[in-house]
Fold this sequence. Notes:
Blueprint: H1 5-34, H2 38-47, E1 51-55, E2 59-64, E3 69-75, E4 81-88, E5 103-104
Amino acid sequence: MFYTRGPIVGAMLGDIETMQQRAVMVEIEEMIQSTPDYADIREALRSLNFIPEQDDPDVAIWVHPGLRIFVLLQMNLGGGYAGYRVAAYDDLKGREGEFAGYNAR
Length: 105
């Protein structure tokens, strides 16, 4: 039996992209948990090439289309955040009708 390089290389690239995606998600979650100030988180997300989809006083949504990650922050009135969710777009598949809640801080 012979294996061609095409499918193996494609699978390896997919695995590398998934590992990179998960590594960035862990980094963001650790950053959110250790940084109470939203202004610092905003700058860190910008430095990681995230784009603000919504940046309102009550909710902030940041996305990274290349890595297919989104960050959802529920804001407190005092400028911090009450909860958050860091997830990959693919994590939401198959959850129709189910509320994607926040991870408590």
